Prior knowledge:
Helices cover 61% and strands 9% of the residues. It folds into four domains: 3-82, GMP Synthetase, Chain A, domain 3 (2-Layer Sandwich); 136-289, P-loop containing nucleotide triphosphate hydrolases (Rossmann fold, 3-Layer(aba) Sandwich); 295-359, Helicase, Ruva Protein, domain 3 (Orthogonal Bundle); 370-458, Chromosomal Replication Initiator Protein Dnaa, Chain: A (Orthogonal Bundle). It is of the alpha/beta class. It has helices spanning 3-20, 26-29, 49-71, 84-121, 139-150, 169-183, 194-205, 211-223, 240-255, 276-283, 295-308, 315-324, 329-346, 352-359, 370-381, 385-388, 395-412, 416-423, 427-440, 445-458, and strands at 33-38, 41-46, 77-82, 159-162, 189-193, 227-231, 259-264, 286-289. The longest helix is centred in the N-terminal third of the chain and has 38 residues, at 84-121.
Amino acid sequence: MENTELKNLWEQIKSELIKVLPESAHPWIYPLEVSGYDKGVLTVVTGQMMGRDLLRKNHYQQIVDVIKKVTHNQTADFVIIYDEKAAKSLKKENEKFQKKITESKLKEQAMENLSNMQSASNLNLKYKFENFVVGKSNEFAYKVAMAVAQNPAKKYNPLFIYGNAGLGKTHLMQAIGHYTIFNKPKLKVKYTKTEDYVNDFISNSRNSKDTIENMSKFNKKYTNIDIILIDDIQFIESKNKTMSQMQHTFDSLYNKGKQIVITSDRIPKDIPTLTAALCSRFEMGLMVELTPPDLETRIEIIRKLAIDNDLKYTEEAIKYIAMNYDKNVRELEGAFNKVSAYAEITNKPLDINLARDVLKCTEFSEEISLDKITNVTAEYFEVDLSDIKGTARGQKVSLARHLAIYLAREITGKSFVSIAEYYNKKHTTIMFAHDKIKKELPLKRDLAEAVREIKQVLKVI
């Protein structure tokens, strides 16, 4: 009998054996290899000595009956032989199999450990570096956050991230935590909202017989860690006792060389009633600002959301949403979620018509560039554009320059760093010019009138 024919015969017999033999015998049947079929005698080989003995003792007649049935030979018989080479081969296969099982279990255990660490750290799974869309408005903050994640407490400590709501402060902060958990699992990470920290402190510091023990547990909870992520620190204002405790937490971590990351909607000195001690501590590291994303970044954010949600879309629709929602990322995502929900429910593509019908925006709010703001301001004051961007110090030019800088910040929301790059100035000079106009506006009617008229030309009123 040819080899192929022999194998086919054995597959038929093995298939029938699986049907008639108990499940306890199956592990001994599967590894059997057919060796020959001669004069009605089927010879099979096994590398399992115990399997050979058990099949002979307990299932010999059942196996013979199946062979007779398949071969239509009522005098058929079978022989099962133990083979040392097969045994060695089987041992290697078993070792490989066991190794795979072990690796699989280790991987499962690692993922379970990571999941537990994320839960203990209070992190949201979606806030990672890989799904943070980087643009001009947030590139510096992103790079700094990544540097902190890669080398905690080495350079920027504390890291203070500030900016208006919905710009990605929490995302960047938690991305640091996730990066640490996946790449430095021995480090302990804790994320807390300031409100939760305040409430936790109040509940543990109430006068009772367990107050000392409770406060000891509270201190361990917030200081026996390697990286602390404190969100929305502005909510600590006016809470004197909590601010005192926060100072203790800060000092304890900092003195032990632990990384501190804080977010706020404003810089420390603009948080009312924040103690001078905390203010100086928050400012001693690096402060980075997040500003509203530019049009290009907003388009990329919407495009990524559409791709992640497996939605068909047109570039025109993406641009329509991006141009009409320019204040923050949260508002932008909200507009996309509304349109995408209609697209899914109605089974329509995400095109410009659907976007217009759902969002009902009156018209495209065209992006106002720094060039346009500077040109309009220069024309208003009748000075040369080159003077505003240059080093001329005349009173008229200086006022036009300061006003252009103020409007650039207020209208576009760009960071002081990016505005400084445009005007070829230091960012501290830009901050000074902006703050100067901001303070003088309520006091000088002619200045307020100039701002109003320039904004009318720019069509932002």
